[in-house]
């Protein structure tokens, strides 16, 4: 049921303040300043011994895994590798016995993710699933896991699953961090910041009118670039994927500084670059990448902090998002990119909820 929304995708985009709150419900623990999960099923010994994490997934869930890599490194100081499930399943990578596998999947039925998880289990690694669909094959076969509780995702383009997966990965990083080096004060700060997140998402949705205007200006373009750094590099990939799959526009996501190693040759007045440039550690670096694009006469659409005058001196168009700590920026900045892909697809007359050639869950390899 779409309610008052014209498409499932738009409804699901607007559900995100609630779905992210649902992912956190009952899992934040003030007394120990950590997160708790009912079903990880790791013994205390396994937990202590973990010294490496391999995340495996496809598509949007893979992009959430890339966000997880930054989160685990920063908050838990755990080395992480993120692997496309379709690649991992046919490789034979040397894996330390103390590695755990984390399969990330909305549907819990993606054939390659299932096969990758089985392969990891066969090699003797504990496998956790971060999954939305309750009782799905991957949820059942995993040794333990965390449900998203996001409710059914019907639009083929994944939206609310991505923000919930990123939220669960943040809580897992907090949990592992607290068993290692994070102090209770640091843990409590993260809990407080997580609690403020649904409200920040609600505010981010307030950019919808800005996004509609921008969609109108650029809907005819046939090539887009999406650029971000650090935590926002995976969001650049995800923004490009959203645009490709529902509007059939060629789009590429890149780490912003990698541009000058080739892709900048694509920049011209008809190729907009969507920059993820909220305030944070790499702000100045991203600003100078933005100037490089402007110097080649490429239009710049900036997703940035409210009232950012410095960005305004370079960007042609701005979409503002509320300020959140850097490790939560992927969740907040994903919202305008989902809306941008949606509005452009609608303007181009595309079937938003059922894009051509795509199925909601890919159960063949
Ligand atoms: C993109 C999209 C796909 C899925 C991918 C994995 O919008 O929906 O890329 O993310 O097929 O699906 P799950 O998460 O169900 O394993």
Overview of the molecule:
- Homodimer.
- GO terms for molecular function: carbohydrate derivative binding; glutamine-fructose-6-phosphate transaminase (isomerizing) activity.
- By secondary structure, this protein is an alpha/beta fold.
- 45% of the residues lie in helices and 16% in strands.
- A five-stranded parallel β-sheet has the order 4-3-5-6-7, sandwiched between helices.
- Helix 12 (233-247) runs parallel beside helix 15.
- The radius of gyration is 20 Å and the shape is globular.
- The relative contact order is 0.15.
- The model has no long low-confidence stretch (mean pLDDT 96).
- Residues 58-61, 105-107, 110, 113, 157-158, 241, 245, 361-362 line the site of fructose -6-phosphate.
Q: Give the strand order of the largest sheet, numbering strands 1, 2, ... along the chain.
A: 4-3-5-6-7
The biggest beta sheet is recorded as: 5 strands, parallel
SS strand fraction: 15-25%
Helix proportion range: 40-55%
Task: Tally the helices.
Answer: 15
EC number: 2.6.1.16
Protein name: Glutamine--fructose-6-phosphate aminotransferase [isomerizing]
GO molecular function, one term: carbohydrate derivative binding
Main location: cytoplasm
Task: Give me a quick take on this structure.
This protein is of the alpha/beta class. It is 45% helix and 16% strand.
